[in-house]
Design goal:
With 514 residues, this protein is an alpha+beta fold. The chain has four domains: 163 residues, no CATH class; 120 residues, 2-Layer Sandwich (D-amino Acid Aminotransferase, Chain A, domain 1); 92 residues, no CATH class; 94 residues, Alpha-Beta Plaits (2-Layer Sandwich). It is 33% helix and 24% strand. A hairpin with a 4-residue loop joins β16 and β17.
Amino acid sequence: MSEAAPSIAAPEPGSAVELATFRDLQSRLPGLFRKVFPDPRAPRTVVIVPSLSLDQDVMARVTGAHHYEERMLCMLMLLKLPRTRVIYVTSQPVSEEIIDYYLHLLPGIPATHARQRLKLFSCFDSTPIPLSAKILTRPRLLARLRDAIPEAATAHMSCFNVSALERTLAVQLGIPIYGCDPALLPLGSKSGGRAIFREAGVLLPAGVEDLADEGEVVAALAELKRRDPGLQRAVVKLNEGFSGEGNAIFGFEGAPDGDRLEGWIKSRLPALAFEARDMSWAVYGAKIHEMGAIVEEFIEGALKRSPSVQYRIDPLGQIEVISTHDQVLGGRSNQVFLGCRFPADVSYRLDIQEEGLKAARILRDRGVLGRFGIDFLSVWDGSGWRHRAIEINLRKGGTTHPFMMLQYLTDGRYDSASGEFRSPSGASCCYYASDNLEASIYHGLTPADLLDIAVVNGLHFNAATQQGVVFHLIGALSEFGKFGIVCVAPSFDEADRLYRETVAVLAREQATEK
């Protein structure tokens, strides 16, 4: 007879008992932040759960989605702290080759010393459901995770985003999460973001939020058109969409005047130009009913940028500006996140920091905790940049891991007064980063192949010069022909050149193998 699975008395997910237990756990964070976080030699355990607990219909349209759990491997930088233990959980095992790659990038710590303090766990499950849900259905794995935490009083979880699943997991592990309480997630929805911006006095696009069904979307589109008869396009956005994948464009070309407008709009909703691959109106309409939506004017402009600002609210309520980026967008109408440049353009990086802080203060007062980002749409009007806030992301985002990788590699710091990042020597650091280097010629390349090509061609990050290329999403390379890249250099031009050179080298190397 097999041994009975270990168990622990756990409150019902979402129950009053669970919510109260979670609040008690979160109350430990201020003490940890005062005593443990400032001391680099203090023993602590960080449990990293890189679950993408987001809309799974949209996630299913992301190539190699479960490998995105590897993006938080940048947090292995915590192993620079000599008494810190890291527990990293994934759906599928991460190759030791990939782990070795990250550990050998650690400055000042032998890789063997770091590896002894790293525990890897896997669900051995690639099904398209959130990692946290997989962990919660495996009581033996939960028991091993609890046993791997030597002292719960000095441990915390770090997640990509915090949903009800992560809250339940934290309660069952008995440790707090350094992240936003899922009860506050509506503040980071598309509708919630618009309300926060309006309250903060931050300029935002003309639009209508809190739309619950097709009829309300039709009425909102008609309202926008009547407000601005010259409006050419509008954007419909799912409340819980991410990376632009929940957006769709509605065109007003040929729209009638008067009472016929609503009927004309309704007849054309099935022809929305969806950003997500293979999206249909049937699925999208159901999502509107499920999570709600907003409608906004499509901001036109010959010279247009999409900068973002990242903040962190610590357990003591202090707001820190983490970074600024110019997002690199693609898709049908340039709304899908492909990558980013750091820092944002010098002509407006400090302006968007200050505008975002207006909203950040309100979020702090509402109880938001941890990292979050605010996205803007910026248009040159002939005399200056005009910024409109368009989104709040109460989670780590596509700009988080490249910035953490820069910190990992250089031991440098971001100066919010100048909007620049400096290494310990005072040198300026920039980067170009992408999660979406994808091509058929990359199929079959193994992690060892990729690293060999980088080293042989002089692209690998060089700690002495503080520049070069580092990779992520490497596990998706062979099967999906996709990986991520961060190109670090002293200037934008050099970072862009490194990116182009890497793409050219890979094409050349693969061509010689045919």
